[in-house]
Amino acid sequence: MEVGVGVNSFRKSTAEWIANLHAADGLGYGVIGMGDSQSIHREVYADLAVAARETRRARLAPMVTNPVTRHPTVTASAIATVDELSGGRAVLGFGRGNNAVKNVGEPRASTALLREYLGALRPLLRGEHTVWRGRDVHTEWVPRAVPVLLSAYGPKTLALAGEIADGVIICAGARPEIVADAIAVTRRAAERAGRDPDALQYWAMVRGSVRDDPAEAAADVAANVASGALMIPKDRHLPERLVPAVDEVRRRYAYREHTHWGGSNEQLVAELGLTDYLVDRLAVAGTPDTCRARVDALAETGLDVLYLAGSVRDAGTVVRRFATEVAAAYTRPAKEVPQ
Fold first, then answer.
1. pTM, two decimal places
2. What are the structural domains of the chain?
């Protein structure tokens, strides 16, 4: 298993963000990702292009883009550009859309739209012609197909990933039993579609922080786990007693403050008594020993990549401590790590 990390430019100076990029690449993270959320982040593909020049080893991915805010030719051309600039290190993380979509007043993509969009996108990522909404479209310059991983919370999207994507990004939990269940759903769907489930990539996106004080680690990720409450499925892993509180988060969530630490969403989940549950379900957060035990257990599920989402307080410290004190067995640091 590899470990990846989100290195967003959100609420950071350019110099601080680039320093975090250098550190993540040098510390041996296998993937560096960035959120696609035009209303609160800088433009993801511009940032990924900079990352392509500022890093040497990590794969680079939008985590994740969506089919609502971008035409498929735009997505194909953008990620192919990052792939070319980085020497073939790009991966396309793709999903229904959350904050990016909600902040322009649109609904998240349906399963049918995901299927239709990915059906058009795959030929475009090979530089071919295809049809999108009745019109011939093309990206004739694109030289190489970039892998497409589908972000999924619930069983429908997990199954779709098994059917048509190159892999899945499991988002519904950081607990090993939740990840194992999601992998099983994806594998069964691949088998039903006549595909080899062993040929797919299995990633999990979790929130992460390592601190000497567990309460500080929980505070680091509280705003981010609040966003996870929007989309966690009402399955056997969600206690019935918490369903009304999760529904209340979905009604009252402030998309303009998405992942803002200390903001109203963080306060909302605290008010509803959800913080401890969400941190346990969606995050690898706590002391080095606690985090290490959880990461080792997740590795046993068969994951290829454990990805730590960005947008936490003091991201530079989290990036360094996670690599050196928690995930050293899963990273390949450079001989000289930038300070």
1. 0.95
2. 2-330 (3.20.20.30)
